[in-house]
Amino acid sequence: MVQAFIEMVMNYYDALETRDPEQREQDLMAKLAQQLAHAKEKSPYYQQLLADIDPASVTSRAALAALPLTRKRDLIELQKQHPPFGGLNTLPAGKALRVFASPGPIYELQGEEADPWRMARVLYAAGFRAGDLAHNCFAYHFTPGAYIFEEGARALGCAVFPGGTGQTEQQVQAMVDLRPNGYIGTPSFLKIILDKADELKADISSLRKAAVSGEAVHPAVRQALRERGMTIRQSYATADLGAIAYESEAEEGLIVEEDALLEIVRPGTGDPVAVGEVGEIVVTTFNPTYPLVRFATGDLSAILAGTSPCGRTNLRIKGWLGRADQTTKVKGMFVHPEQIADIARHHPELQRLRLVVDNPDGQDQMVLHCETAAAGEALAQAVIASIREVTKLRGEVVFCAPGSLANDGKVIEDRRMFS
Predict the structure, then answer these.
(1) Which of 75, 77, 237, 325 has the most other CB atoms within 10 Å of its CB?
(2) Which Pfam families does the entry mention (predicted)?
């Protein structure tokens, strides 16, 4: 009985993972108020954005949902206006431990905090332990990817081989010589390495576990690794936020990291959606150096009902389900998800909306599909007028029953054929 309890406890990085959900929520809300106060005091961007907000009053999900979003796609312009970090940082660039550039370019900084991207928990769930040698195949050039995982591995007490990307034969030879316990990188590059090792008849059987990110793990890949005696765990992280969610031995969705305050909102809005409904991932973190509040990632997912069979009690998400930024151009005019949300606000009788763009006769046309229980000609004409007012384009309306539109997070669907 005692041995079983010890083994169960060892499955978790710390006691936070099995907290009572109500206690976790209280803890997060207390930290949220503190982080808002810190950001408002130290960050020029948040001084302006939160000028009319009393941080001490933001102690609930509803209060959090009333705060404005900061969208990842806006960082490029913000950083051009207020270089190098758009004013979101609380630490000057010259005092950072490292400064990175992600595609865009978008610049990020690393403070001096230990494991600032909170990856130790993710790696622990993937089976990494103190004394392991981790072969890290994320890029060490420009972007923070490799450092995100390396800092987590070091926090666990692992040694790290900085393999980086490419040079497959050299990667295999290093594995033969060094006998690493685990792989860190993308699943596709792991397959390339394994195939090369098979071709060279090289023994890299020391690899028993893999922590992967950046791509979804195909079930066939997972099974192939199992047949080799390897386990693979995937995680969802971004250069700005660090770890957001991770897979456990249950392999049922991704569990939200304990210091990530996650919301799923309707694309084009900051409004939280119901459990199970697909929407945009919005995250608030408690990084003191780079305090991101209601940071809209542009990625789609949905919250899974219930808790993980592994015993961790935090929220779970389905994983990456696509992109929320569905902006499209119709007759030379951009149409944004925010505009569809604006139309919905004009008409509270409407529920879920989906703008379908097509060109059946070579001419662009827009049809707004609206879930409502109050369909009628007067409402149709009012919605058509709103489409014209908001988008400056003509559009038609189709009413449909509540709950009948696909639950895939799409607000704008482009069906046009161009060939």
Answers:
(1) 237
(2) AMP-binding
